[in-house]
Design goal:
The complex is a heterodimer of chains A (about 220) and B (about 650). With about 220 residues, chain A is α+β, with helices and mostly antiparallel strands. Chain A contains three helices and 18 strands. Chain A folds into two domains: about 110 residues, Immunoglobulin-like (Sandwich), CATH 2.60.40; about 100 residues, Immunoglobulin-like. Chain B has about 650 residues and is mainly β. In chain B, strand 23 and strand 24 form a beta hairpin. Chain B starts with 6 loop residues before the first strand and ends in a 48-residue tail after the last helix. The chains are: A alpha+beta (about 220), B mainly beta (about 650). At the A-B interface, helix 1, strand 1, strand 3, strand 8 and strand 10 of A face strand 2, strand 4, strand 9, strand 27 and helix 8 of B.
Chain lengths: ~220, ~650
């Protein structure tokens, strides 16, 4: 019973995704770009090179997939191609394409499973490890945890708390959320040239885990 | 920059002889790499068609049927691939960001090596892209060369020779560290490249035998804390702030387990040495922990000689120790010139059998780890002095802790498409003004495609366990989460009773990790067991919940049938036998206008049958509509 309901849920998911994201019949993939991330909704598009219908079997993972059809302008059923893949806990996930009628496999694609990369902590526009003039650092009011352009994943992190310290001053200020408190900004104002400003942050990942990430900024 | 205007085009004529190959793409990660032959594979979700593939900003060539090689021009930031049909109409277009390939990293024994390396007796070297890379490239390692004491050793492939490994082992037996030069040649995507590094190899494996460790033993003043006589919270596992708790709950870096020789001696005495983990091995892939199954004792190798085996990892549970030793050091404070006495290392000790002496089963540097453990936040100065530390632990003697958590959700009338989600709370140790606070907040966009509350699901709080959560697929767990958010939007404000199950207090699990028993721990944070509706909803706890999506089929501007969600309806039961009540609903259309206002009172609405035209006889309807206010049976959406 539960499974049945789940299936219905899945069907709705796919329909909604198609209707809102837009439906494209051509699937363009890049060889070797085959990484799936744990705890992340890996969006995928599926097709075959000759357009034949297929079913999928997944080893070490779950694909939110159903042989659903929407109808194109010629009133022909169009197979659903866009869905999500959740990898399991092994290092590789395999997706096997099988003939819908016979169940015979005709192709297997293998994916590497990785943890989501750690985000970069920035103080305003200043990235972790960067050097900046005192005035620039003083002007910053909040921390960010996000991916640089090299990682085009749609992942949002939230900064739960932080602790800031400066090399030359024996004082630590703690705070919650992404915004710096006045106390923290007062402390940062006291930093002199050559000082290192260190933030220890607790960051919530989309998988629910809380991670500690440090960031350091040098006053030029 | 001119090159971006150049267009390459290759016609793709579908041929029936094409082999049937599956194609899976990642729409989020549209990236092409510079100086790299990006192999683009074209597939079809339904009927194949002929088209010409055009590339803007890249060289394009055909490799085989349906397979193209795309090489972005230098300095181009984006490349567009267009599929154009015979009439010249664009069927599909795809925009790719161009990135340069990251420099690959040198790995030794599964560890990325820059200028320092802790020797772990592993002969395997490797070249890999940094962990965040989207692309997976198998670099082939061709040659390696190690220079040590002005003598060069070299070999082919990715395994260091036994000769150089023995040389390093011998050096590590007598020295705390050695300096080597390691050079590797590897095959990359354009040819052969090299990485050369000056590396200081630390012999931490043999720490107890090294001069470095002896130095700590011989020259440090120590503070001995015996478990039997201790009255502080140091050994109190139930206290989240006690030293053993903090050690246990956090991943400890640079842990030095019992030395091989000590283990040998104890085993010869018949001691039963446990093998386990201390803390979380957060970054190591699970499979690589197999190295723990090393054999103990001398090992016979192929040539008949006996050698020491790899290091044995005897890690002890912190509750299985009898004594903690704090090693002290004098530190000059750079700022004020004063000398501060602080703790340098911590050793956990155990008395085996009838031995007179304690054996060190595990040790680690204090300061760097305690920074991670958060103890430092308690301190006003950088250095922790032993007396102060013990005093601090003494103050924790009452181990009862109070946990308070609150979750709030709201929709602001000013930005009706945003859900604001706030959570906060604290852990408090009694009799001490010591809290660990947490707070976080974020907004989520209701208009986002695929917004998860737009699905039906059932939630049965009574039967909802951690195990059930594991068995359900990830999707539904996430759906649950968002559904609560939406529900709470509608009824304004809610308190969750949440508990942290399976997980020791304060532990921050995230990635796949191993718990203290070596079991795999899944990345779960909090488990919400009950929802109490604080206001508005009959002053009773409500469970289970049901969320129903009303939607209709429409033709969109591209003349395709799409589902358009209309309304999200929340139902609840007072108990498992009662009828479904509609407690709230959100009109999704109204969310897109300025007229939205959240519901001060639960909006009792009738679930209406949704009967819309669907082709091929597929009709969506909500069954079992009864008279106003009651819904006797479960709501199903049938296809």
């Amino acid at each position: 019973m539960v499974k049945e309901k789940m299936k219905k849920t899945i069907v709705i998911l796919i329909f909604v995704a198609n209707s809102l994201i837009g439906f494209s019949q051509i699937v363009v993939s890049i060889d070797n770009q085959n990484t799936l991330y744990h705890g992340y909704k890996n969006r995928i598009k599926i097709g075959t090179m000759d357009g034949r219908p297929f079913d999928l079997k997944v080893h070490n993972g779950k694909i939110i997939y159903d042989t659903t059809f929407v109808y194109n302008q010629n009133d022909e059923p169009v197979q659903c191609v866009e869905t999500f893949l959740y990898p399991g806990y092994e290092r590789k996930t395999k997706v096997v394409f099988v003939e819908p009628d016979t169940g015979l496999p005709f192709d297997t694609l293998e994916f590497n499973v990785k943890s989501l990369p750690a985000p970069t902590i920035s103080l305003g526009p200043l990235k972790n490890g960067s050097e900046a003039h005192r005035g620039t650092i003083r002007a910053q009011t909040r921390l960010f945890a996000k991916y640089s352009a090299e990682i085009p994943l749609n992942v949002s992190f939230s900064i739960l708390s932080w602790e800031v310290s400066i090399t030359s001053i024996s004082k630590r200020i703690v705070g919650k959320g992404a915004y710096l408190t006045n106390e923290a900004r007062d402390l940062i104002r006291q930093a002199e040239s050559g000082d290192k400003i260190t933030f220890m942050t607790n960051i919530k990942h989309p998988n629910g885990g809380i991670y500690r990430r440090n960031a350091e900024f040098t006053v030029r | 920059m001119k090159s971006i205007f150049l267009i390459s085009a290759v016609t793709f004529l579908f041929q029936l002889s094409l082999t049937a190959q599956g194609v899976i793409s990642f729409p989020e990660a549209k990236v092409l790499y510079r100086n790299h032959d990006n192999i683009v594979r074209i597939g079809f979700a339904d009927k194949p068609q002929d088209f010409t593939l055009h590339a803007h900003g890249a060289d394009l060539s055909k490799s085989s049927e349906g397979v193209f090689i795309v090489r972005p021009y230098e300095k181009v930031r984006q490349v567009a691939l267009l599929c154009v049909d015979s009439k010249g109409d664009t069927i599909s277009n795809y925009l790719f960001d161009c990135l340069s390939l990251s420099e690959p990293l040198l790995q030794w024994g599964g560890v990325t090596v820059e200028n320092e390396y802790s020797f772990n007796d592993d002969p395997f070297i490797d070249i890999r892209l940094p962990s965040g890379s989207l692309i997976n490239i198998d670099y082939k390692l061709l040659n390696w060369q190690i220079t040590l004491n002005n003598i060069s050793y070299s070999g082919k492939g990715n395994v260091l020779s036994e000769n150089i490994m023995n040389t390093i082992r011998n050096e590590c037996q007598s020295k705390a560290s050695i300096d080597i030069k390691l050079k590797v040649d590897y095959q990359n995507t354009v040819g052969i490249a090299s990485i050369e590094k000056d590396i200081r190899v630390y012999s931490e494996n043999y720490l107890s035998n090294s001069d470095e460790y002896r130095n700590i033993w011989n020259n440090s003043r120590i503070v001995v804390i015996d478990k039997a006589q201790n009255t502080t919270a140091i050994f109190d596992e139930s206290n989240p702030f006690s030293m053993v708790s903090l050690i246990r709950q956090n991943y400890i870096k640079n842990v030095f387990p019992m030395s091989v020789l000590t283990a040998e001696r104890l085993q010869a005495q018949g001691a039963n040495l446990p093998i386990g983990f201390l803390g979380l091995v957060s970054d190591a892939p699970l499979i690589e922990s197999d190295s723990l199954k090393a054999n103990y004792g001398l090992e016979k190798v192929e040539d008949g000689n006996y050698v020491y085996p790899p290091r044995t990892e005897y890690y002890f549970e912190v509750n299985d120790i009898d004594r903690i030793i704090l090693f002290l050091k004098d530190n000059a404070n750079q700022k004020n010139g004063l000398t501060i006495n602080s703790i340098s290392h911590v050793a956990l000790c155990k008395k085996f059998g009838d031995n007179d002496k304690y054996d060190v089963v595990l040790s680690f540097p204090f300061h760097s780890n305690l920074l991670d453990l958060g103890i430092i936040a308690l301190q006003e100065s950088d250095e922790i002095n032993a007396n102060r530390f013990i005093k601090m632990q003494n103050e924790l003697a009452d181990s009862t802790a109070v946990i308070n958590e609150n979750y709030f959700f709201s929709i602001s009338p000013n930005s009706p498409n945003k859900v604001n989600y706030n959570a906060g709370g604290y852990y408090l140790v009694k009799n001490r003004n010591r809290e660990i606070d947490f707070e976080f907040s974020f907004s989520s966009d209701l208009e986002k495609p695929g917004f998860r509350p737009l699905f039906q699901f059932d939630y049965d709080a009574d039967n909802f366990s951690a195990e059930a959560m594991h068995n359900m697929n990830s999707f539904s767990w996430e759906a649950n989460h968002d559904i609560f958010k939406s529900l709470n939007n509608a009824i304004h404000s809610v308190d969750y009773d949440s508990i942290i199950s399976d997980i020791p207090l304060m532990t921050m699990y995230g990635e796949d990790s191993l718990d203290l028993d070596g079991n795999l721990v899944y990345p779960i944070d909090y488990h919400i067991h009950k929802i109490h509706f604080k206001t508005n909803f009959q002053n009773q706890s409500a469970s289970p919940l049901k969320v129903v999506l009303k939607h209709q089929l429409e033709l969109n501007s591209q003349d395709r049938y799409v589902f358009r969600p209309i309304e999200v309806i929340y139902c609840a039961k007072n108990n498992s036998n009662s009828e479904w009540f509609v407690v709230a609903s959100i009109d999704l259309d109204s969310l897109k206008t300025d007229n939205y206002s959240f519901l001060d009172q639960p909006k009792i609405e009738w679930i209406q049958i949704l009967e819309n035209e669907m082709k091929k006889g597929k009709v969506i309807h909500l069954k079992n509509r009864k008279e106003k206010g009651k819904l006797n049976k479960e709501i199903n959406i049938d296809f």
